[in-house]
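Teaching note: in complex prediction, the entire set of molecules is handled at once rather than each chain in isolation. The prompt given to students was simply: 'Predict the structure of this complex.' The entities are:
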Amino acid sequence: MNISIWRHWLMTIALCAAASATHAQSATPTADAGSEGPPTAAPPVMRPLPEEKSWRLGIGLGYGERTNPLIQSDDIPVVVDLDIAWFGKRWFFDNGDVGFALLDNRRFTTNVVARVNSDRAFFAKTNTRFVTFALTSGGGTVPIADPITGVPLPQPPPTALKVPQRDYAVELGLETLMDGEWGEATFRAFRDVSDTHNGFEISADYSYRWTHGRLSIAPSVGVAYKSAALNDYYWGVQPGEAGQTLLEYHADGGFGWEGGIRTSYYLSKSMRLAVSANYERLQDSVARSPIVEQPYVFGYFAGVAWQF
Amino acid sequence: MRARLALLAAGLLAMALPATAADPPLRPPVRLIVKPLLCLIDKGATSCAVTFDIRWKSAVEAEYCLNDEAQPAPLRCWPKTLSGEHRHERLVTQDFAFWLSPPASADRAAEVKIEVLRVDSDDRRRERRSRHVWDVL
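The expected output is the structure of the full assembly:
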């Protein structure tokens, strides 16, 4: 009797023992010859959902841009979008915002949140252009003459045309988040607490997400009121900044609106293709500012996003 | 008790002994294809209803049973054949697996994992969207 026969004999004894010990009673389906049968249906196995992790870490890689409405500015490329958030029982950190949940019930959640104003981001991508003033007459350039003596004046040196510097403002406020079968809504009211612009902003957003198969589409709309102090600090031209190239300008408070869409196609639980676009219409008084070239901000992104 | 120990020892010995040329050949590879592999659960839903399209192909004729992790008994068994197809309606609430096994065997000749992703959250704070310039996702 060789080793192989011994092995089979011992395996048979072991399997018989295991079978008798477990008393397997499950019905064994009969084998069928057909290749496809009627669909079978099974009830769900209800088990509690796993608790969500405190940390949310994600990264999006692709290409996108957000236009810069300022004169003498570059659009803002978006190649990497990091998502770093932490949610405790009440405290949370969400991509730069720090918050504390004041109220949380079945209908809404109200948080107190500290954030950095987003208008400042546009001022980080500006350039300086030098402008030369000349007098034209009869289709050609003529020397600028002294209006009294008529003596030609020397060519004035080029004047710098640049967007004034602006600081980041820390804002503190309340936000209320609501959701239901009808979608999601957010109401926010923030005020500067860093003595930067001393203004405030009130906004409301609504979005609705459709999910079908692996696809998720979420259009959104929003409206925001920004106070005169906020708008004038960022988008106005103060007396000390005005000159030959920029006229003094004071922006008023007013409403702006935005609309967007975010689309995801999930390749797996942690990876998805993401396409998004957003259009924001600046408030009229902001759009008329001499440092504003475009009355809107348009952003888009397409890429792959991972959630770790 | 002594008999059980003896059986256990026999089983362990059997597993420890090397296989020889007299053993049956290794089971040929079989490919299991299931669609869809992922379902999304959104707000207000606790499960997704899915009709799975399940197909398998083997290089040589073989007997296989299709198993669902949530079911104690196989969903379906096929006699010796090269391939099989099956449609299975199911409410899915969490990750699970389909697999093929030889009849009356616990071996998994091929396995496919089905994933469930909740795209919403019970914590509304996780759904909030910041208004930062770089927030595009």
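Point out the following to students. The CA atoms of residues 57 and 112 of chain B lie 14 Å apart. Confidence is low (pLDDT under 50) at residues 10-22 of chain B.
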